[in-house]
Amino acid sequence: MSHSVEPEAVALSILIVTTTLSGLMVLEYAWNIRFEVQVIWRRFWKSAEVKVFVVARYVGLAGQIFNVWFASRMASGIPSSPAACRVWFMYQTIAIQSLTMSVEALLILRVCKMYNNDKYILGILSVFGGAQCAGMGISALMVVPSLGSSPTCTVIGTHPGQIYVGVSTVAMHLCILAMILWRYFRGNWQEPLRSYFKIMVRDSICAAIAVTGCFLFLTLVPIGLSQSAAQTSENILFHVMVCSFWFAAGRLVLDKERFRQQSRNNREFTEVDLEDLGSDSDVSPARLSNSKAVPIEVSIAADFEPGVGKEKDIADERLYDWADTSLSRCVSSIMHMDIGSRVEGSGSTSNLARFTTQT
């Protein structure tokens, strides 16, 4: 296949894939917009996760609309200058790195809450995060200036420098996933906090698989595919990554906020419970407003001393008023004290009479 025909076919494939993914993103956004406005937007200034979610969601959606426009321009065969193509490639790099860091920020915030901001965990995440940022920078400096492109800005060929960003990103997300799974399986979580952790771990696994799979494919493309397949995959992969990371960031926050809302409606959780996950025993279910006192049968055998009172069995009686019980105990104690004082007083009077007679 000649180079003049292949870019046109690749551009048409890009347009089809981009339009399909954009339709899915718009459909998902329209499905959740009411919940976002009513619940999530109100927490924008209170939660760091919501801030990351809002920025990634709307910037990513706007970027995907721009991608559809540029893909239609490529499919139409409209040529662009080399400088414009270089700006297009730089935009792709920035968009992917921004969405990747958004997903990582949401996962890191989740890990920090699970480990109660442990300094060793933060140190490990800092090392992996620094390595990833360095890999992204090196890949951007090596790949973007040396990419070959057609007049319509379709990528021709691949660059082995992609391996740096791929390996570092995969290692980062595998580390985060291992920390989340370790904390989940090692903790003795009680209901309903256990249900919340199931949702959180499920979304974290899906996000890690999406990011790891895309970057692993990006790493293996230069060495595992033929030239034509690699060229098509290289151009389409960017749009697939944008959509995947956009959905991953949305699931991490939307599902959590839905669980929070349902728990608040059922009064199973307080807001502090979901924000402080450092201890697996910090489960404080909220008291239900319509809760009723349940009568308890208590069997008590009261033994009185001979001569003071009569033994009485009050087994199987229902005690509805604890105040009356406490008052009865107080009265009984006072009676014992009174009787003891009288006995002691009578003994003292006898001793005094005996002393007087002897004198």
Automatic annotation (TrEMBL):
Give the UniProt keywords, A-Z: Membrane, Transmembrane, Transmembrane helix
Q: Any stretches that span the bilayer, and where are they?
A: 12-31, 52-70, 90-109, 121-143, 163-185, 205-224, 236-254
| Protein known as | Transmembrane protein
Question: What organism is listed for this UniProt entry?
Answer: Rhizopogon vinicolor AM-OR11-026
